[in-house]
Amino acid sequence: MVAPCCTIITGNHNYEKEIKYLPFDTKIIRKAVVIGDYCWVGRNVMIMPGVHIGLACTIAAGSVVVKDIPDYSVVGGNPAKLIKKKDKDAIKALVSSGRCINNLKFNKDYLT
């Protein structure tokens, strides 16, 4: 789930090695961003190139993610830092029982 106004950046100007212009080169360096299953990315989050976000992570609104985030993490801030870890067994139980937002009918199931 990705909330509104998020930015996922997959490219950046070369500003370090063998640059031909200042403040950065015209070459674009591309790096994939990977977001694991069952993640929730809050409003106005910015994810930088090359970041891997693990399974079942929650990224707090307004965070800037510059490093990889391990599975089952809750992170927030600028730069995003670990706030807490989720209960891995509880997450696995929810997944195995089909209790995921994309599996709900979005009526009475969502409200229980």
Walk me through the structure:
The chain is an alpha/beta fold and 112 residues long. The chain has a single domain, classed as Hexapeptide repeat proteins (UDP N-Acetylglucosamine Acyltransferase, domain 1), CATH 2.160.10.10. 12% of the residues lie in helices and 26% in strands. It is built from 2 helices and 11 strands. The strands form 4 sheets. It has a 4-stranded mixed beta sheet, with no helix packed on it. The mean pLDDT is 89.
Features:
112 residues, UDP N-Acetylglucosamine Acyltransferase, domain 1, elongated, alpha/beta, 26% strand, four-stranded mixed sheet, three-stranded parallel sheet
Query: CATH topology, which one?
Result: UDP N-Acetylglucosamine Acyltransferase, domain 1
Order of helices and strands: EEEEEEEEEEEHH
Spatial sequence of strands, sheet with the most strands: 5-8-10-11
Number of strands: 11
Measured on Cα atoms, how large is the radius of gyration?
Answer: 17 Å
Unreliable spans are: none
Q: Portion of residues in helices?
A: 10-25%
When the domains are counted, the total is 1
- In terms of DSSP E residues, the strand content is 25-35%
Give the CATH superfamily: Hexapeptide repeat proteins
Average pLDDT: 89
The helix count comes to 2
